[in-house]
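HOLO CASE FILE
Compound: magnesium ion
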Amino acid sequence: MSAVDAVVAKSIWKVFNPGKANEVTALEDVDLKVAAGEFVSLIGPSGCGKSTLLRVIADLTEPTKGEIQVAGKSAHEARLEQRYGIAFQQAALFDWRTVIRNIELPMELKGWDKSKREARAKELLELVQLPDFANHRPWELSGGMQQRVAIARALALDPSLLLMDEPFGALDEMTRERMQNELLAIRQATGKSVIFVTHSIPEAVYLSDTVIVMSPRPGRITHRIGVSFGTRNEALRESPEFFEHVTQVREALRAR
Ligand code: ADP
Ligand code: MG
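Model generated. Tokens follow.
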């Protein structure tokens, strides 16, 4: 049998400001299962609850109702044990720290000694193809490079799950496509499970094993679209099978 599922969420509801005039139901009865090693994208209109769902999984906010397990633990235990790494649209690096010291930060907080931290950070800089930028400051790097540093930092403690909230949303299209290839390579090399929030249909299709389509608020899951391509490369992006999947997701987003 396979390893324990990366995420199992059952009947998740999230209501902000319950009972008040500004009450918002952000998530309505959401069921989500992410297998170990699976790449799942969440796609849906702005405000449909994608970030909220990711935050519930990360134990950054509590669900109003429902149950959630991350790597077989409660979301809270999983957070304390750092079972996941997280990366957002803004790389959120500390400008007063060098690149390598940014990547070391989670290890510092864990109390790792300097030589162990440095060795791990160097390994991660290789993985994200920035070995020559260890001692640069974040503001000296392009947006794509900064995002690679953020991904390296998210991987620092070797979590089995990566949570990514529109990580490439602020990048130009060419950089974005390059980053997608790099993320796939990293995922290939590490076997991580990934939950990836995006607005981009081609991005979701290119990256994912499963595309989860959400409805406008209150966010519900309306479609689960499996994607299985042999190889994911530049030629795929121009192939009929790729466009078929893009069309399928687009129609699902329109259907509701
Ligand atoms: P998405 O990431 O899909 O754009 P969000 O998960 O950020 O959507 O938000 C879903 C809905 O919940 C939105 O209507 C948003 O305004 C609302 N919301 C998100 N966070 C809060 C909060 N802390 N307090 C009140 N409402 C919130
Ligand atoms: Mg969001």
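CASE NOTES: The first strand starts at residue 7 and ends at 16. Residues 50-51, 165 surround magnesium ion (ligand 2) (CB under 6 Å).
CLOSED: yes
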